[in-house]
Amino acid sequence: MFSGGESSVDFFKKLKDRLVPHQTDEEEDKKSTIQAPEEEIEKMEKKGKKVALSACLYGMKCRYDGSDNKDVKLLNVLHSNDYEIILFCPEDDCFGTPRPTMDLVYTENGIKAISNLTGADLTPHIQEYAIDFFESNPDIELFVGKDRSPSCGVKSARLYDRDRSLIKSDATGVMAQVAKDYIKESIDAEEYLLLQESKLKGNQRDI
Ligand code: SF4
Question: Which end is more exposed in the chain, N or C (fewer Cβ atoms within 10 Å of the end residue's Cβ)?
Fold first, then answer.
């Protein structure tokens, strides 16, 4: 587990055994040996605009089942845009990995993250992590969240009613909701990639 108060470099050093290192397209083509984590740390220390990124998209094995959502295309775009990447994973920090899944549920007290194992309301833990993370990283300019996550999805999380019937698929996850109070731009990873591709083809907004 790691805390939002740590720098991404500290987080990286502690959990490097759970990392699938990122390789650029060129490196992938060469089929070279895997990069040492220290080289990854240097990349993350590269100065530039700061982006908060769901750690599973970077290759951290922090999903509920201990797997990752590594997105090489996304990482190449962020690196080429000169972003310094700050990783976060509220669920790993709050509940460990592996862990039971959760869903966003519309309740009489608002939208809550509810454990699929115990039915407990996990929302306050994630909110507390998120506030600590954003307070500790005040100069982040962009939040890129994992699509469909009840924690990190920006406009893509599934929202259910108490009977677990789907209400909508464009809800905002708990951490992404907190991000709106701290960061100007928040976007789902898939939409970010689409925008970047559009930008290459024409004149789309630059983020
Ligand atoms: S989607 Fe968010 S909470 Fe889920 S594993 Fe990725 S970073 Fe962690």
Answer: N
Per-residue pLDDT tens over the stretch 128-175: 999 999 999 999 999 999 999 999 999 999 999 999 999 999 999 999
Quote the number of domains for the chain. 1
Which atom belonging to ligand 1 lies closest to the Cα atom of 146? 1
Write down the residue that tokens 């939409």 correspond to: 191
Pocket of ligand 1 (CB under 6 A): 54-56, 62-63, 89-92, 146, 149, 151-152
pTM value?
0.81
Ligand 1 centre to CA of 5 (Å) is 17
Atom of ligand 1 nearest to the CA of 97: 5
**Residue 43: is it exposed, middle or buried by C-beta count within 10 angstroms (0-12/13-18/19+)?**
middle
| 101 within some domain | yes
Task: Domain of residue 34: give its range.
Answer: 8-201
Q: Report which ligand 1 atom has the smallest distance to the Cα of 87.
A: 7
